[in-house]
Structures are given as C-alpha cells and as structure tokens.
Design goal:
With about 450 residues, this protein is of the alpha+beta class. The protein has 2 domains: about 20-335, BirA Bifunctional Protein, domain 2 (2-Layer Sandwich); about 350-435, 3-Layer(aba) Sandwich (Rossmann fold). Helix content is about 40%, strand content about 20%. It has 16 helices and 17 strands. The protein has helices spanning about 20-40, 50-60, 60-65, 85-95, 140-155, 170-180, 185-195, 205-215, 215-225, 230-240, 245-265, 330-335, 360-370, 385-395, 405-410, 430-435, and strands spanning about 40-45, 50, 70, 80, 105-110, 110-115, 125-135, 165-170, 270, 285-290, 300-305, 320-325, 350-355, 375-380, 400-405, 415-420, 425-430. Strands 1, 5, 6, 7, 8, 9, 10, 11 and 12 form a 9-stranded mixed beta sheet that branches. Strands 14-13-15-16-17 form a 5-stranded mixed beta sheet, with helices on both faces. Strands 2-4-3 form a 3-stranded antiparallel beta sheet. Helix 5 packs across helix 11. The mean pLDDT is about 90. The structure holds one RNA strand of 75 nucleotides.
RNA sequence: GUGACUAUAGUUUAAUGGUCAAAACACCGGAUUGUGGCUCCGGCGAUAUGGGUUCAAUUCCCGUUAGUCACCCCA
C-alpha cells in the first residue's frame, strides 16, 4: 500500500463548488429557469452514462475515442459519460415521438464531461443549459430561440449593447458555395473550415489558403462577400454575380423573412455574419452565435441553430428542431466582466447562544420550536463565552442572536438581540417568535 | 496530443545557496468570567512531489503532479 498523502485538489479539469461559489452558480441557474419557465419550456434530465453507440452514430469515431470518457462496464457494455446532451435528448424524444403534441419546448442543465486539456473556458466537467424546440419548421421558432437566448442575458441585467447575436444560414451558405461559386462538396467543406478560422490567421494567410482551394476569381468573389457588413449589401453583390438562380433566390428570400421577423420583435443587436459557420456538419438551417461586446472579453459565448435531422439515427423521419447550449463558464465570465453578478449571501434567521452547557437541553428544545415556525435557526453548543458565540452569529450572517442563560431559563424568557442594530430585549418565547417574524 | 510559463501558511503575497523563511487577511485565545462588528496583545500555520549538483538547496538542474496561456479540437 502506498502511503502517499491524498491530494485535496479536485480531479484535473473539474471544480469544487464551495458554498460561496455554489451560491453564485445556483443564482445563475435560478435566473435561467425563471426565463425558460416564462417561455413555457419544460425541464428534463437524462442519465450521466449512455451507451457509446449513441455518440458513435452522430459524431465521428475520433470524438468518441479521444475526447470522451469511455469504458466498459462489468457486463461488457461500452459506456460513455455524456459529452453533450443532444443525443440523449434525441433518444428520449425518439422513444416517445408519437406521444407528444408539438412543438416541444424542453430544456436541461446537465453537467458534461470531455477529456480535454483544460484551459481558459474549457474544462473537463462543465454545466450547460440546453434549450431545444422540436417539431416545427416555423420561422417563429427560430425567432423564439433567438429571443430566449437574448432574454437569458437581459434577465441578468445585460443590455443590448453588452452583446451581439451573429446569425447566418446554412442553406444560404450552401447556395452560395455550390450554386454561385460552383464549388464541389469537398471544396465547400474545406472552405467552411477555413472561413471558421479566418479571425485566427492573418489576412494574407487567409487569402493564400483560399486560393489553394478555389480559383482566383472565385476567391475574389468570396472575399468580397465576406467583406459585406450588411445583409442588404451582401445580397446586392450576390445578385450581381449569381445570374437569376432560383435556389439562391429562395435562400435569400427565406433568410430575409427571418431577418425581418427578428427585427420586428425588437432585437436590434442581431447582425448578419456570413463568416459564421458553427458545426457545419449537422446544422441544416439558421445558425447563431452570441458575442460579448466588452473589449476585455470580446469572444463568442454560446450559440446554436436549426438541425432537422436529429432523429435520423433512430430511423425516424426528420423533425424540425432548433437548439442551443450555453456553458456556465462563459456565462460566468460574461456576467463578471459586465458587473452583473450580485452579492449572493446566505442568511439565517437566528443564532441561539447558550450561556452555559447546563442549558443546552432547554436551548435545543427551544431551537426546535423556532424551526417549527419555519425559521432557519442554528444553535451554538460549544460552551464558549458569549462574546465568541456572538461573533460567530455575526459571521453566520444571522438576523438575530437569541441568548439563553440562567436568568432566561429561570423566567422562561429569551434575550433577542438584533445584530444589525445591537438593540435587544428579554421577552417571552411567544414574543420572540413575533419579533423574528418582523422583517 | 504539442509548446511556453508558474508552484512559499487556509488565502493573497514577500525574501534568501548559510542562524529562527516575513507580512496581511482568515482562524483560535485574551484584554471584556452575560454581549458581535472597531481597537490592542498573543497563538496556530508554509517552501507541491521525487531525484541530482553542493560542505550546505526553499533558492541551481532534471523528472512527476498540478495550475495558467497558446496551438489542436470544440458536440
């Protein structure tokens, strides 16, 4: 046996939430639940473990092997700790797909595991709010999803200047790449990956890499399209080079309707961004990403989009679906950066100080009586001197200190001290309850 | 997975190839044997880990572990 001392650190890439941290964590998710209930979303939960096949079916082998916690159980089954919630959600919906009245509005706040090298905003365990709408093709579902995403932030007190929502549409990307620029599927794929990396590399490098994939004049067209900073300007140039293509026109019309709808519901900080790619592999319609506009934290926080083929792996017909996920870490960083995290404190109603250990039994009975009135009460059974007990009452953020000593026990009274003011009076038990009830 | 930087009380930091590693906050006790917050005094408490160089290592070197950052990846 090794005698090595056990480490007190949490496992690599995971976090302990001490009470003062967990209060903040809970506060964040309380606010989120408030918003989602207001929009009529129902909360669900799934197991932490799934059969590995569930992830193999959707993602590539590489993800399953290299980025998940996978193992064999004692019965020889291949299991994986969930690295995301969507496959579990798809499984649940597919299992009862005939039972529901659509659309379904569901959300969950699972913890997820990925075997990664931890760094900023990327841990091995994190919590993620997952919001999904199932069973509708309506543009208003897309708009609602954006509205929910926006509301999740504004509920914390963020304003529309604090963040921007970038939107794009995979059908539009596809129409431009294949119909206008005439790219093959391989070229489209390579190009989408490159555009996704555009901000990470220099302009020259980007341009030269584009030219490794497509011809010179095609590259020029693409670069010009990417430069357009409004949807109107983008469309104008697109029409110039596309010569009356119906597929392109349909994609434009469809996106225009969506964009107009978004503007009508008062989202001024939604902007068209043809560079936005986001999981090209499975999104089938609009995609979005929320960016922090604060100079200290100018990056993407979360996003999602429409993916209509989610139930395919269960051999079920396509069902219109939209979803997005928001991690707890980026959200925390956003709120912290913008000063939107309130001081969340734990309070107790009363701290019972006992002057001598011979009164502990009486004090315990009294404490139980107070709890039966729904007060949160802590009793001090240390037998320390009163000043130490009061100090602890103060540290515990108690509203009142209730002192029980010889005089009180003899007269069946209690001394009620209001810690904020230092005022106190010795009263009957009934009167003490009444005092505690005053706010 | 690749590379860089970092590791000192519970926490945030200081210092040093050579006597007892310093301070603040926190905690405990006392000043105040029935009255907290402010003040004063005292106490507890650390060189991540394994090896090497050296008369001597917390300090220099290597490994490990952990943290941070970038790349990769990002469901």
């Amino acid at each position: 046996m090794s005698k090595k001392t056990l480490s007190t650190r949490p496992y690599k890439g995971t976090r302990d939430f001490y009470p003062e941290d967990y209060r903040v964590h809970q506060y964040m998710f309380d606010v989120i639940r408030t918003v989602l209930y207001r929009f009529g979303y129902e909360e669900y939960m799934a197991p932490l473990l799934e059969e590995t096949d569930l992830y193999r079916a959707k993602s590539g082998e590489e993800i399953v092997n290299e980025q998940t916690y996978s193992f064999e159980d004692r019965g020889g089954r291949d299991l994986t700790i969930r690295p995301e919630m969507t496959p579990s959600l798809a499984r649940m919906v597919a299992r009862r797909s005939g039972d529901y009245t659509y659309p379904l509005r569901w959300f969950s706040i699972p913890n997820l595991y990925r075997y990664e090298r931890p760094q900023r905003g990327r841990l091995r365990e994190h919590y993620q709010v997952n919001v999904d709408i199932f069973g509708t093709e309506s543009k208003y579902a897309d708009i609602e999803a954006l509205d929910v995403a926006r509301s999740l932030l504004t509920e914390f007190g963020a304003t529309s200047e604090d963040f921007e929502i970038h939107i794009n549409d995979r059908r539009l990307i596809h129409a431009v790449y294949s119909e206008v620029l005439g790219l093959s599927e391989e070229q489209s794929y390579a190009l989408s990956k490159l555009v996704d990396r555009k901000d990470k590399i220099s302009t020259e490098e980007f341009q030269s890499q584009v030219r490794e994939i497509v011809a010179q004049d095609t590259a020029k067209h693409l670069e010009t399209l990417l430069e357009k900073d409004s949807f109107e300007a983008f469309v104008a140039y697109l029409r110039e080079i596309s010569s009356d293509n119906q597929i392109v026109e349909d994609a434009i019309q469809s996106f225009e309707t969506f964009l107009n709808g978004v503007r009508q519901v008062g989202m001024s900080n939604v902007i068209f961004d043809f560079e936005l790619m986001r999981g090209f592999d499975y999104y089938t319609g609009f995609v979005f990403e929320v960016f922090d506009t604060h100079p200290d934290n100018n990056r993407a926080m979360f996003g999602g989009g429409r993916y209509d083929n989610l139930l395919e792996i269960f051999d079920q017909p396509p069902m219109g679906a939209i979803g997005f996920g928001m991690g707890d870490v980026p959200l925390w960083v956003f709120l912290e950066t913008h000063g939107l995290l309130p001081q969340v404190e734990d309070r107790i109603d009363a701290y019972v100080c006992v002057l001598d250990t011979q009164y502990l039994a009486a004090a315990y009975e009294y404490t139980q009586m107070l709890r039966s009135h729904d007060f949160s009460v802590v009793m001090d059974y240390s037998g320390r001197k009163l000043s130490a007990q009061l100090k602890t009452a103060d540290r515990k953020n108690a509203r009142f200190a209730l002192c029980l000593g010889e005089q009180e026990v003899r007269n069946e009274t209690v001394t009620v001290r209001t810690l904020a003011t230092g005022e106190q009076e010795t009263v009957s038990f009934e009167k003490a309850v009444a005092l505690l009830k005053q706010v």
